[in-house]
Design a protein that fits this description.
This protein is an alpha/beta fold. It folds into 2 domains: about 200 residues, D-Maltodextrin-Binding Protein, domain 2 (3-Layer(aba) Sandwich); about 90 residues, 3-Layer(aba) Sandwich (D-Maltodextrin-Binding Protein, domain 2). It is built from 13 helices and 10 strands. A 5-stranded mixed β-sheet has the order 7-6-8-5-9. It has a 3-stranded antiparallel β-sheet with strand order 3-10-4. A two-stranded parallel sheet has the order 1-2. The protein is globular. The two termini are about 30 Å apart. This is ABC transporter substrate-binding protein. Pfam families: OpuAC (PF04069).
């Protein structure tokens, strides 16, 4: 959703064990490839979706690279996947935080992969030759069919399929592109037999759910509003929505050069940590740059 064409972009709310990947001493000499890249004057261009959670992760990537001596150019808040993927393929952008399941389904609507490992393996095969998936994180921020706790209790809802027993019409709200996504209303009908009307609610999806103008909301699982607004993501036992882990997508030309910097970041980013990052942004109103700097320092990656 938001990211699949996401924008809104999106986690962004947010992500610890990891191997030390470098000195936090700002005066330390950059190592081999990093100093060569810096000396060559070719900046690594890092992009992000128009989604606060995604921007935070992109900023973490950017600052981690800078800490190792790379020159970095930021191109954040680009918009939907349809808009930024061509820039990734052309090499205009060289590093981008993505979401494994949504990206795989964007590239291959007929994929049968569902588990995190299977989705990642299928994604590495589906990517264009000039793009490389670096190590994925355990952190997830995927689409969900979410209802209010009161609505769930009233109708005895636990899974998406339970919606089929609720007298309609029921309306699903989410970003405009959700209407045509495999996990949108058509998918809910095919997989669970649930009839849903659709309303393009965009950035006001949760507010519309709370106001009762929609019955079901497409909310990302790392959104702090799930807890603060007492919302209930419905279980998806049939795998309508693919597992979607945070995964860095890099231009193949620079993938080997930056992997030693970015892979430890992925190793340190956890599901709980991602939510915490999102809370700092959406609730505490801290900037992506400030959040990233603190997170890298806390994890020995700054």
């Amino acid at each position: 959703m938001k990211r699949g064409a996401v924008g809104g972009a999106i986690g962004l709310a947010l992500t610890m064990a990891l191997a030390g990947c470098g000195s936090s001493d700002p005066l330390a000499e950059p190592s081999g490839d990093a100093s060569a890249a810096a000396a060559g004057g070719d900046a690594i261009v890092v992009g992000s979706q128009t989604y606060p959670s995604n921007e935070i992760i992109a900023e973490i990537y950017a600052q981690a690279l800078e800490a190792k001596g790379f020159e970095v150019e930021r191109k954040f808040n680009i918009g939907q996947r349809d808009a930024y993927l061509p820039s990734l393929e052309s090499g205009e952008i060289q590093l981008f935080p993505e979401y494994s399941g949504n990206l795989l389904q964007f590239l291959d609507e007929d994929t049968e992969a569902r588990t995190p490992d299977d989705v990642y393996a299928a994604l590495t095969e589906a990517l264009p030759e000039n793009l490389t998936a670096l190590e994925q994180s355990t952190a997830t921020d995927q689409d969900s069919y979410t209802v209010t706790a009161a609505f769930a209790e009233e109708h005895g809802l636990e899974t998406i399929g339970d919606l089929a027993g609720v007298e309609g019409p029921l309306t699903l709200g989410g970003p405009p592109e959700l209407e045509e996504r495999p996990y949108g209303p058509k998918g809910a009908k095919e997989v669970y037999g649930v009839d849903l009307e659709f309303s393009a609610t965009g950035d006001t999806t949760v507010e519309d759910l709370l106001a009762g103008t929609i019955d079901v909301a497409n909310v990302f699982t790392a959104d702090p509003k799930i807890e603060t607004e007492d919302l209930v993501p419905l279980a998806d036992p049939e795998g309508l929505i693919l597992s979607s882990n945070v995964v860095p997508i890099a231009s193949s030309e620079v993938a080997d050069e930056i992997a030693d910097v970015i892979d430890p970041v992925s190793a340190a980013l956890t599901p709980e940590g991602l939510v915490a990052l999102n809370v700092q942004n959406t609730v505490e109103q801290r900037s992506a740059a400030e959040i990233a700097t603190e997170w890298l320092a806390d994890n020995g990656l700054g």
